[in-house]
Amino acid sequence: MLNIKEFLNCESPDTWVECAADNLPLLLMDHANCEKKAASTALNLMYRYVDKPALMMQLSKLAREELRHFEQVLGIISARQIDCVHVSPSRYAGELRKTVRTHEPARLIDVLIVSAIVEARSCERFGRLVGVLDDELATFYRSLMKSEARHFRVYLELARALAADIEPRIEHFLAIDEMLITTPDPDFRFHSGVPT
């Protein structure tokens, strides 16, 4: 079984972890947005690739689970009486997707790899947060780690089922992930880089 820490090129910086602990309302609002986006990604792929029933079945399961996570985060936000406000997206997903190829099946392969990396990074961040958050949030994020790790593996397996050698594309996107996570970032978000 592929280990996420070994898969990713880097660990989230300590400064990001400290900033997250100091900005819980923003972290939770952006986390809720990330869960919505993850569900939307799975649904969009289902609409686009209707000729792939096995893919659609896996993505349907993922979308349902991502929406359940969204509901759970929203419940925590409500219980903590945090105001729901618009939070602009981070640079992370957009920058990762900039070099997705536009022809098929390369486009699908790249989107699946990017989705796997996003899930892997989310899992890694949950793990980093467990040690600095209150008991309720630490327990919640610990429970999400298994789901994110499973989503990471599903996306990677789906990509590998489409092409024999996707390692160069994985390495390409992992290098972008590393750059985004380790360089200064003016906007603190769940997937942001080093806080400035």
3D structure, described in words:
The protein is mainly alpha-helical and 196 residues long. 70% of the residues lie in helices and 2% in strands. The chain has 8 helices and 2 strands; from the N terminus they run H-H-H-H-H-H-H-H-E-E. The chain has helices spanning 4-7, 14-22, 24-48, 53-79, 92-97, 106-130, 135-160, 167-182; strands at 184-185, 194-195. Strands 1-2 form a two-stranded parallel sheet. The radius of gyration is 16 Å and the shape is globular.
The percent range for helix content is over 70%
DSSP strand tally: 2
The main sheet orders its strands as: 1-2
- Give the uncertain stretches in residue-range form: none
Helices and strands, in order, run as HHHHHHHHEE
Enumerate how many helices there are, as a single number: 8
The helix/strand class is mainly alpha
Major sheet summary line: 2 strands, parallel
State the gist of this model.
The protein has about 200 residues and is mainly α.
Task: Summarize this structure as a short list of keywords or feature phrases.
196 residues; mainly alpha; two-stranded parallel sheet; 8 helices; 2 strands
What is the topological layout?
Elements: H1 4-7, H2 14-22, H3 24-48, H4 53-79, H5 92-97, H6 106-130, H7 135-160, H8 167-182, E1 184-185, E2 194-195
Parallel strand pairs: 1-2
